[in-house]
Amino acid sequence: MVDSNESVSVQIVLTGSVIDKLNDSASNFPEKISGIRVSINGRKDGLFDHKLSLVDHGQEDNSDQVQVINENLNLYIEGKNLNNLNGLKIDFDSNDTLANGFIFDNPNPIWDTPIALKLQKLFDEQVNPSIASHGGSINLIDIKGSSAYVEMSGGCQGCGMASVTLKQGVEVMVQEAIPEITELIDSTDHASGANPYFASEKK
C-alpha cells in the first residue's frame, strides 16, 4: 500500500470528461498501472506547467498523496507540490490542442516568496515588454539561493544573441532592481529552437 503524504489535505477536482479520458488512457496501456500522477513541471508564461503521467505498479512515490478516482484508478498528487496543487481543477476537451486537450485551472499563486514575486513582476512589466518587439520572452523557472533559473522562448530560443541579451542586458537589470539575485542561469534548450521571429522575415 502506498503511504500518502498526510501533512496537507489536498483535493483535486476532476470533471467527468477528464475521468473518461484517464480511464481510456489507462485501459489502452499495454501493462496494468497503479494510476495517474499529476505534478508541476515548472512555470511558464505566468502559469504553472502541469504534467500528467502514468504510474507503474511498484513505481509509486511514497511522498505523493493519493486520491481515489474509481476502483481501478488512483490519482497520485506530487508530494513536494501539494500546496501548489490544492484546489486544482482538471478538465478535458479534445478540441483544445493545448496540453493535448487537458485543461488545468489552478487557483494558487505561482510564487509565494517576496523575491520570486518581485522578479516575476520585473519580467512581466519591464523585461518581456522590452524584448517582445523581437518576438521573445523570458520565463522564471525557479530560484535557488541567489541564482534565478530562466527559460527563453519565442525569438530568443535558438538565437545566437540570446546569451548576450541575458547576461549583458537582463541580468544587469535584475541585479540593479533585486540585488539578492546575483545571476541568471539559462535553462533553455536552444538546440531545439528555430529562432521563429527572425526566420519569419526570410522570403
How many separate domains make up the residues? 2
Mean pLDDT: 81
> What fraction, in percent, of the residue positions are helical?
25-40%
> What is the H level of CATH, i.e. the homologous superfamily of the largest domain?
HesB-like domain
Structure annotation, total helices: 5
Low-confidence stretches: 193-203
| Shape call | elongated
C-alpha end-to-end distance: 61 Å
For the sheet with most strands, the description reads: 4 strands, mixed
The side-by-side strand order for the widest beta sheet comes to 3-2-5-4
Helix/strand/pairing category: alpha/beta
The assigned CATH architecture of the largest domain is Sandwich
CATH structural class of the largest domain: Mainly Beta
Number of strands: 10
CATH fold-type name of the largest domain? Hypothetical Protein Aq_1857, Chain: A
Estimated radius of gyration: 20 Å
Strand content: 25-35%
Secondary-structure element order, N to C: EHEEEEHEEHEEHEH
Search tags:
three-stranded mixed beta sheet, four-stranded mixed beta sheet, alpha/beta, 10 strands, 203 residues, GMP Synthetase, Chain A, domain 3, 2 domains, disordered C terminus, Hypothetical Protein Aq_1857, Chain: A
